[in-house]
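Appendix B. Chain record.
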Amino acid sequence: MNIADLVSHTIDQCPDRLAVVHNGRRWTYAQLGAHAASLKRKIAAQGFSEGERVVLWMENSAEYIAAYLAVLALRGVVVPVYPQAPAAEVMRTIRHVSATGVIVSRSLWQGMAGEADSENLRFILREGRIVRCRHRGQAIAAPPGLAQIIHTSGSTAQPKGVMLSHRNLIANARSVLAYLRLTADDSILAILPFGYAYGNSVMLTHLLVGGKIVIENSSAYPKVILNQMVEERISGFSGVTSTYAMLFDRSNFNARSFATVRYVTHAGAPLPAELLDRMRSTFSNQRIHLMYGQTEAAPRLTHLPPEYLDRKARSVGRAIPGVSLKIIKDDGQVAQADELGEVWASGENIMLGYWDDARATAKALNDGWLRTGDVGRLDEEGFLTLVGRVDEMIKSGAYRISPAEVEEVLLEHPGVEEAGVVGLQDRLLGEAIHAVVRLKQGLRLTHQDLLAHCAARLAPYKRPKSICLVEAFPRSPSGKILRQGLREISRAALGLPAS
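Structure tokens predicted for this chain:
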């Protein structure tokens, strides 16, 4: 089954419904379908073959969606790259996946002009026109059914290309549609990049039911986002931790009324209790859905329904339909209820593997199970609680400390907006705990204030040895905090050489 075929069915069923709103333009499903069909013809005319990869270097837009559908309709593979990525990174991605085509926005073309001459491309498509046709070799075959390659955000190593099939993406979308109860009457304010798994899921779910996608790329201007929610009568809003933190910190988000909003969702980095409390106060009449997943799962693994927010506080929910979870302890045995270990997942939404990386694929996939790299526990009712990453647990003295536990305590301080905790090599302890903190606007605190706050709430072995105050956190293009960046900030503040 092909995603483009499913969306074509939507277009046939509701051609006059509004599909996309962006920059003052309003596209119906018929117009979106017509644009996708036009791009499909142009790409096919270049001798395009099934399984070839096409890089989409575009911001969220109706044109992005049309290009996405056009490539999939030709049984090609979509490879999105971050809009603000430099041309050199785009070239690395082209080489990594052996792409034969690039579709690029006009605003980004200048950064690419002259860079692609040496690439083994069949075409570069800009503003609906083929501007280069320089293919000089045979395209490398792709696994059957492959729809998309999404590169994970790496902190110290080359990002890996997660291979997601049509089956993976459709299984994920159908589960999300079921628990959010999405219909053609729903509309979403899309601020998450379509090129990343969460944003891609938001896009696909609404296309499959005939909903309205309102695109807003001005995430640095929260008042614009809030006005769009009201003016377009949005029924749903999806964000990550930094999204909600930014809205509360830089706007009157908590004072606005969102009469048409039916639900909000959160996924990505863990949601601090204090921020969840603010969300619940602001969205007192809306359903708040907490979710957990990974790009490798297309991306959803668990869902915590709104009615469990109190009874299962700190949990990320149960496995979504079609997904199974288990906890594997350090000794390789399956954990019992409430025992800690690595979270493993299986289901139709689990990736095919990593592009051109058999070693990483073998490490991540074990007999159909995805090793998530997350540490957690399942209770007797099957609710999952996460405590950190396998490779981020801090081993200090005889103890293993979860960075999330220390971060949670720091975030309890009314003056703290964001907190990140890492372990740095220590001669006596093996690793020592160090924290990086961003304060709320207008507040003044010292690292000594925060160290005292931790001392009153944490056992001695869990307390940070140092706390560095910063104006901004190092983030990946998808908004995730980069742990390696936090380590370098801490090392610099302590006068230690870079690792």
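Further analysis of this model is presented in Appendix C.
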